[in-house]
Amino acid sequence: xxxxxxxxxxxxxxxxxxxxxxxxxxxxxxxxxxxxxxxxxxxxxxxxxxxxxxxxxxxxxxxxxxxxxxxxxxxxxxxxxxxxxxxxxxxxxxxxxxxxxxxxxxxxxxxxxxxxxxxxxxxxxxxxxxxxxxxxxxxxxxxxxxxxxxxxxxxxxxxxxxxxxxxxxxxxxxxxxxxxxxxxxxxxxxxxxxxxxxxxxxxxxxxxxxxxxxxxxxxxxxxxxxxxxxxxxxxxxxxxxxxxxxxxxxxxxxxxxxxxxxxxxxxxxxxxxxxxxxxxxxxxxxxxxxxxxxxxxxxxxxxxxxxxxxxx
Length: 312
Fold this sequence. Notes:
The chain folds into 2 domains: 6-240, TIM Barrel (Alpha-Beta Barrel); 264-309. The protein is built from 10 helices and 13 strands. It has helices at residues 54-65, 87-95, 113-119, 134-141, 149-162, 181-192, 218-232, 254-262, 269-277, 283-292; strands at 6-12, 16-21, 28-29, 43-44, 72-75, 100-105, 124-128, 166-172, 198-202, 237-240, 267-268, 296-301, 304-309. It is globular, with a radius of gyration of 19 Å.
Protein backbone atom coordinates (compact mmCIF):
# COMPACT_ATOMS: atom_id res chain seq x y z
CA UNK A 1 0.00 0.00 0.00
CA UNK A 2 1.36 3.38 -1.01
CA UNK A 3 2.18 5.92 1.70
CA UNK A 4 0.66 9.16 0.44
CA UNK A 5 2.01 12.69 0.82
CA UNK A 6 -1.35 13.78 2.26
CA UNK A 7 -3.13 12.29 5.28
CA UNK A 8 -6.11 13.05 7.46
CA UNK A 9 -7.91 15.23 8.22
CA UNK A 10 -6.72 14.88 11.83
CA UNK A 11 -8.45 16.65 14.72
CA UNK A 12 -6.16 18.90 16.75
CA UNK A 13 -6.71 21.06 19.81
CA UNK A 14 -4.25 23.55 18.37
CA UNK A 15 -5.33 23.64 14.73
CA UNK A 16 -8.88 22.33 14.69
CA UNK A 17 -9.35 20.09 11.65
CA UNK A 18 -5.99 19.72 9.91
CA UNK A 19 -5.01 18.04 6.65
CA UNK A 20 -1.44 16.75 7.01
CA UNK A 21 1.29 16.99 4.38
CA UNK A 22 4.20 14.57 4.58
CA UNK A 23 6.85 16.58 2.68
CA UNK A 24 9.97 14.81 4.00
CA UNK A 25 10.70 11.05 3.92
CA UNK A 26 10.22 8.99 7.06
CA UNK A 27 12.70 9.95 9.83
CA UNK A 28 14.91 12.26 7.81
CA UNK A 29 15.59 14.84 10.49
CA UNK A 30 18.05 17.22 12.13
CA UNK A 31 17.25 15.68 15.53
CA UNK A 32 16.71 12.19 16.94
CA UNK A 33 14.57 13.05 19.97
CA UNK A 34 14.36 10.55 22.79
CA UNK A 35 10.56 10.93 22.95
CA UNK A 36 9.75 10.88 19.21
CA UNK A 37 6.61 8.84 18.53
CA UNK A 38 7.81 7.99 15.00
CA UNK A 39 10.94 6.12 16.13
CA UNK A 40 14.68 6.85 15.83
CA UNK A 41 16.03 9.06 13.06
CA UNK A 42 17.44 7.03 10.16
CA UNK A 43 19.02 9.93 8.26
CA UNK A 44 20.31 12.78 10.44
CA UNK A 45 21.19 15.77 8.28
CA UNK A 46 21.11 19.56 8.03
CA UNK A 47 21.23 19.63 4.22
CA UNK A 48 18.11 21.02 2.58
CA UNK A 49 17.12 19.19 -0.58
CA UNK A 50 14.24 18.25 -2.89
CA UNK A 51 12.40 15.12 -1.77
CA UNK A 52 9.42 14.93 -4.12
CA UNK A 53 7.83 16.11 -7.36
CA UNK A 54 6.07 19.33 -6.37
CA UNK A 55 3.43 18.96 -9.07
CA UNK A 56 2.59 15.47 -7.84
CA UNK A 57 2.21 16.62 -4.24
CA UNK A 58 0.00 19.58 -5.18
CA UNK A 59 -2.18 17.40 -7.42
CA UNK A 60 -2.65 14.86 -4.61
CA UNK A 61 -3.46 17.67 -2.18
CA UNK A 62 -5.87 19.36 -4.58
CA UNK A 63 -7.87 16.13 -4.98
CA UNK A 64 -8.29 15.84 -1.18
CA UNK A 65 -8.87 19.54 -0.44
CA UNK A 66 -11.87 19.57 -2.77
CA UNK A 67 -13.63 16.88 -0.75
CA UNK A 68 -13.03 17.96 2.88
CA UNK A 69 -13.34 21.09 4.99
CA UNK A 70 -10.29 21.82 7.14
CA UNK A 71 -8.98 24.74 9.19
CA UNK A 72 -5.37 24.23 8.08
CA UNK A 73 -3.19 22.32 5.68
CA UNK A 74 -0.27 21.39 7.92
CA UNK A 75 3.25 20.39 6.90
CA UNK A 76 4.04 17.76 9.54
CA UNK A 77 6.14 14.83 8.27
CA UNK A 78 7.80 12.17 10.44
CA UNK A 79 10.97 14.24 10.11
CA UNK A 80 11.93 17.93 9.94
CA UNK A 81 9.78 19.84 7.38
CA UNK A 82 12.30 22.66 6.87
CA UNK A 83 14.76 20.18 5.29
CA UNK A 84 12.46 20.40 2.27
CA UNK A 85 13.95 23.03 -0.04
CA UNK A 86 10.57 23.39 -1.76
CA UNK A 87 8.73 24.15 1.50
CA UNK A 88 7.99 27.83 0.81
CA UNK A 89 6.99 27.21 -2.79
CA UNK A 90 4.68 24.37 -1.76
CA UNK A 91 3.02 26.52 0.92
CA UNK A 92 2.38 29.32 -1.58
CA UNK A 93 0.71 26.88 -3.97
CA UNK A 94 -1.48 25.47 -1.20
CA UNK A 95 -2.65 28.97 -0.28
CA UNK A 96 -3.97 29.35 -3.83
CA UNK A 97 -6.63 26.79 -2.86
CA UNK A 98 -7.88 29.31 -0.30
CA UNK A 99 -6.63 27.30 2.67
CA UNK A 100 -4.48 28.48 5.56
CA UNK A 101 -1.14 26.73 5.93
CA UNK A 102 0.65 25.64 9.10
CA UNK A 103 4.01 24.05 9.84
CA UNK A 104 5.32 22.25 12.93
CA UNK A 105 9.12 22.61 13.06
CA UNK A 106 11.81 21.76 15.59
CA UNK A 107 13.32 25.20 14.83
CA UNK A 108 16.81 23.74 14.37
CA UNK A 109 17.43 25.37 10.98
CA UNK A 110 16.18 28.88 11.75
CA UNK A 111 19.75 30.17 11.57
CA UNK A 112 19.42 29.78 7.78
CA UNK A 113 17.97 32.85 6.02
CA UNK A 114 16.21 30.76 3.36
CA UNK A 115 14.41 28.75 6.06
CA UNK A 116 13.20 31.96 7.69
CA UNK A 117 12.04 33.18 4.29
CA UNK A 118 10.07 29.96 3.72
CA UNK A 119 8.41 30.05 7.15
CA UNK A 120 7.25 33.64 6.59
CA UNK A 121 4.76 32.24 4.04
CA UNK A 122 2.86 30.27 6.71
CA UNK A 123 -0.21 31.46 8.59
CA UNK A 124 0.68 29.35 11.64
CA UNK A 125 4.14 28.32 12.85
CA UNK A 126 4.84 26.03 15.80
CA UNK A 127 8.41 26.01 17.14
CA UNK A 128 9.74 23.12 19.20
CA UNK A 129 11.76 24.39 22.17
CA UNK A 130 12.51 21.65 24.71
CA UNK A 131 15.65 23.08 26.31
CA UNK A 132 17.73 26.24 26.64
CA UNK A 133 20.63 24.41 28.25
CA UNK A 134 23.20 22.87 25.87
CA UNK A 135 23.65 19.62 27.81
CA UNK A 136 19.93 19.04 28.27
CA UNK A 137 19.26 19.92 24.63
CA UNK A 138 21.81 17.35 23.43
CA UNK A 139 20.38 14.73 25.76
CA UNK A 140 16.73 15.20 24.82
CA UNK A 141 16.89 16.23 21.14
CA UNK A 142 20.16 14.55 20.09
CA UNK A 143 20.88 17.05 17.28
CA UNK A 144 23.09 16.74 14.22
CA UNK A 145 26.71 17.24 15.26
CA UNK A 146 27.08 20.46 13.25
CA UNK A 147 24.32 22.34 15.12
CA UNK A 148 24.89 24.39 18.29
CA UNK A 149 22.10 25.46 20.66
CA UNK A 150 23.18 29.13 20.68
CA UNK A 151 22.88 29.07 16.90
CA UNK A 152 19.35 27.65 17.10
CA UNK A 153 18.12 30.05 19.79
CA UNK A 154 19.56 33.06 17.96
CA UNK A 155 17.73 31.94 14.82
CA UNK A 156 14.49 31.57 16.76
CA UNK A 157 14.81 35.11 18.11
CA UNK A 158 15.57 36.50 14.64
CA UNK A 159 12.58 34.74 13.07
CA UNK A 160 10.09 35.79 15.74
CA UNK A 161 11.08 39.44 15.32
CA UNK A 162 9.99 39.29 11.67
CA UNK A 163 7.05 36.89 11.73
CA UNK A 164 3.52 38.31 11.86
CA UNK A 165 1.43 35.14 11.69
CA UNK A 166 0.13 32.96 14.51
CA UNK A 167 3.17 31.83 16.50
CA UNK A 168 3.25 29.07 19.09
CA UNK A 169 5.92 27.06 20.90
CA UNK A 170 5.76 23.50 22.12
CA UNK A 171 7.88 22.10 24.93
CA UNK A 172 7.96 18.36 25.63
CA UNK A 173 8.73 17.65 29.27
CA UNK A 174 10.44 14.35 30.11
CA UNK A 175 10.75 13.06 33.66
CA UNK A 176 14.25 13.49 35.05
CA UNK A 177 15.57 15.28 31.96
CA UNK A 178 14.23 18.80 31.39
CA UNK A 179 11.57 19.10 34.09
CA UNK A 180 13.59 20.71 36.89
CA UNK A 181 12.34 24.00 38.31
CA UNK A 182 15.53 25.91 37.43
CA UNK A 183 15.44 24.82 33.82
CA UNK A 184 11.71 25.56 33.46
CA UNK A 185 12.36 29.07 34.79
CA UNK A 186 15.05 29.72 32.16
CA UNK A 187 12.92 28.16 29.43
CA UNK A 188 9.88 30.30 30.28
CA UNK A 189 12.01 33.45 30.38
CA UNK A 190 13.36 32.70 26.92
CA UNK A 191 9.92 32.01 25.43
CA UNK A 192 8.56 35.19 27.06
CA UNK A 193 10.91 37.19 24.83
CA UNK A 194 9.51 35.67 21.62
CA UNK A 195 6.08 37.37 21.59
CA UNK A 196 4.32 34.04 21.12
CA UNK A 197 0.55 33.75 20.89
CA UNK A 198 0.55 30.51 22.86
CA UNK A 199 3.14 28.35 24.64
CA UNK A 200 2.17 24.68 24.81
CA UNK A 201 3.57 22.27 27.38
CA UNK A 202 3.29 18.65 26.29
CA UNK A 203 4.19 15.27 27.74
CA UNK A 204 4.96 11.93 26.03
CA UNK A 205 1.55 10.24 25.81
CA UNK A 206 2.39 8.07 22.77
CA UNK A 207 5.07 5.35 22.62
CA UNK A 208 8.48 7.10 22.62
CA UNK A 209 11.68 6.13 20.80
CA UNK A 210 13.46 5.38 24.09
CA UNK A 211 11.46 3.09 26.35
CA UNK A 212 12.82 4.71 29.52
CA UNK A 213 11.18 8.03 28.62
CA UNK A 214 8.33 8.87 31.02
CA UNK A 215 6.06 11.89 31.59
CA UNK A 216 6.93 14.22 34.47
CA UNK A 217 5.12 13.74 37.77
CA UNK A 218 1.81 15.57 38.20
CA UNK A 219 3.52 17.88 40.70
CA UNK A 220 6.31 18.73 38.25
CA UNK A 221 3.79 19.36 35.45
CA UNK A 222 1.73 21.71 37.63
CA UNK A 223 4.90 23.52 38.71
CA UNK A 224 6.00 23.93 35.08
CA UNK A 225 2.58 25.30 34.17
CA UNK A 226 2.70 27.76 37.08
CA UNK A 227 6.15 29.01 36.06
CA UNK A 228 5.08 29.48 32.44
CA UNK A 229 1.96 31.35 33.57
CA UNK A 230 4.06 33.60 35.81
CA UNK A 231 6.16 34.70 32.83
CA UNK A 232 3.64 34.54 29.97
CA UNK A 233 0.22 34.99 31.52
CA UNK A 234 -2.55 32.38 31.89
CA UNK A 235 -4.14 33.03 28.48
CA UNK A 236 -0.90 32.21 26.65
CA UNK A 237 -0.12 28.85 28.31
CA UNK A 238 -1.78 25.49 27.73
CA UNK A 239 -0.92 21.93 28.73
CA UNK A 240 -1.34 19.14 26.14
CA UNK A 241 -1.50 16.02 28.31
CA UNK A 242 -3.89 13.77 26.39
CA UNK A 243 -4.30 12.35 22.90
CA UNK A 244 -5.88 14.41 20.13
CA UNK A 245 -9.65 13.98 19.61
CA UNK A 246 -10.87 11.64 16.84
CA UNK A 247 -11.90 12.94 13.39
CA UNK A 248 -15.46 14.21 13.03
CA UNK A 249 -16.03 12.71 9.58
CA UNK A 250 -16.21 9.25 7.99
CA UNK A 251 -13.11 8.47 5.85
CA UNK A 252 -13.84 6.99 2.40
CA UNK A 253 -11.03 4.42 2.58
CA UNK A 254 -10.57 3.47 6.22
CA UNK A 255 -7.44 1.34 5.65
CA UNK A 256 -5.60 4.12 3.82
CA UNK A 257 -6.75 6.59 6.47
CA UNK A 258 -5.41 4.44 9.31
CA UNK A 259 -2.08 3.65 7.61
CA UNK A 260 -1.38 7.25 6.63
CA UNK A 261 -2.42 8.59 10.03
CA UNK A 262 -0.44 6.14 12.20
CA UNK A 263 2.67 6.89 10.12
CA UNK A 264 2.73 10.25 11.89
CA UNK A 265 0.28 9.95 14.81
CA UNK A 266 0.04 6.54 16.53
CA UNK A 267 -3.58 5.76 17.41
CA UNK A 268 -4.95 3.95 20.46
CA UNK A 269 -5.77 0.32 19.74
CA UNK A 270 -9.37 0.55 20.92
CA UNK A 271 -9.95 3.59 18.72
CA UNK A 272 -8.60 1.77 15.64
CA UNK A 273 -10.91 -1.17 16.40
CA UNK A 274 -13.82 1.27 16.69
CA UNK A 275 -12.92 2.82 13.33
CA UNK A 276 -12.68 -0.58 11.64
CA UNK A 277 -15.95 -1.78 13.17
CA UNK A 278 -17.81 0.85 11.13
CA UNK A 279 -16.58 -0.83 7.94
CA UNK A 280 -15.97 -4.49 8.80
CA UNK A 281 -17.93 -7.10 10.77
CA UNK A 282 -14.68 -8.51 12.22
CA UNK A 283 -12.50 -5.44 13.02
CA UNK A 284 -10.01 -7.38 15.18
CA UNK A 285 -9.44 -9.82 12.31
CA UNK A 286 -8.87 -6.96 9.86
CA UNK A 287 -6.33 -5.34 12.18
CA UNK A 288 -4.55 -8.67 12.63
CA UNK A 289 -4.34 -8.90 8.84
CA UNK A 290 -2.56 -5.52 8.75
CA UNK A 291 -0.18 -6.72 11.48
CA UNK A 292 0.59 -10.00 9.64
CA UNK A 293 1.20 -8.05 6.42
CA UNK A 294 3.77 -5.87 8.28
CA UNK A 295 1.85 -2.66 7.66
CA UNK A 296 1.43 -1.86 11.36
CA UNK A 297 2.70 -2.99 14.75
CA UNK A 298 0.98 -2.82 18.15
CA UNK A 299 3.04 -1.15 20.89
CA UNK A 300 2.27 -0.76 24.60
CA UNK A 301 3.06 2.47 26.45
CA UNK A 302 2.05 3.47 29.99
CA UNK A 303 -0.50 0.68 30.16
CA UNK A 304 -2.19 1.54 26.86
CA UNK A 305 -1.84 -0.13 23.46
CA UNK A 306 -1.20 1.85 20.27
CA UNK A 307 -1.19 1.04 16.57
CA UNK A 308 1.96 2.33 14.84
CA UNK A 309 3.01 2.20 11.17
CA UNK A 310 5.79 -0.32 10.46
CA UNK A 311 8.48 1.02 8.13
CA UNK A 312 11.23 -1.52 8.68
